[in-house]
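WARN no homologs supplied; continuing
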Amino acid sequence: MKPESDIRTENEMRAAAPAPSAASRASRSETPSARATSLGDERADRHEQIRVRAYELFLERGHRDGGDIIDWLDAEQEFDASPIERAYRTAAGGKSN
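OK structure emitted
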């Protein structure tokens, strides 16, 4: 058990601490299912963007079959690239290698 003086000191420190901002209160009040939904939305959005880019790569290859996995992986790599890497790829004609 803590001595009474330690408890008083902790309470004083808590009272002197700044109040949490509205943004931090909102994020804490968000339910786990709401967070899971927003995460699911982010994943769905990422998946859709990668799907569209993989299809663009397929079209750039001349509609030839057999490169779907490479197209998908290249699209993922482009999506996950830093803004500097994206700018470099754009300047290089959109090629990932």
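DSSP finds five helices and no strands in the chain.
OK
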